[in-house]
């Protein structure tokens, strides 16, 4: 196999393996299947413990434990 062929395979493998990665902001973690109820924000009402959330997986970045998103698409904060 030529050097160009090997280089192509290496680049393709890196792209495929790294293609599942998502860059998250500070204080965020990428999750493959977060809660179907969506991420809570400072403006949203707290969900009851027995909330019936849909089982829909939408990979996304969520705030790290103990933090809340200020508003949809906003930064993660310790206090609202």
UniProtKB/TrEMBL annotation:
Record has Signal as a keyword: yes
Is this entry keyworded Signal? Answer: yes
Q: Which domain of life is it from?
A: Eukaryota
Which residue ranges traverse the bilayer? none
Q: Which UniProt keywords apply?
A: Signal
Task: Note one Pfam family from the annotation.
Answer: TIL
| Signal peptide extent | 1-21
Database matches in SUPFAM superfamilies: Serine protease inhibitors
Which segments constitute the TIL domain? 24-79
User: CDD domains given for it?
Assistant: TIL
Which InterPro entries does the UniProt record give? Ser_inhib-like_sf, TIL_dom
Provide the family line: Belongs to the serine protease inhibitor-like (TIL domain-containing) family.
By what name is this protein known? Cysteine-rich venom protein 6-like
What species is given as this protein's source? Fopius arisanus
Q: What gene does this protein come from? A: LOC105264122
